[in-house]
Amino acid sequence: MPLESTADKFERTQKILSALKRVYPNAHCELNFSNPLQLLVATILSAQCTDKRVNLVTAELFKKFRSAKDFAEAPLAEIEEAVKSTGFFRNKAKNIKACCAALVEKFGGEVPRTMDELHALAGVGRKTANVVLGNAFGINVGVVVDTHVTRLANRLGLAKGTDAVKLERELMKLVPQDDWTLFSHWLIWHGRRRCNARKPDCENCETQKLCPQIGVKK
Ligand code: SF4
Question: Is 194 in the pocket of ligand 1 (CB under 6 A)?
Answer without folding.
Answer: yes
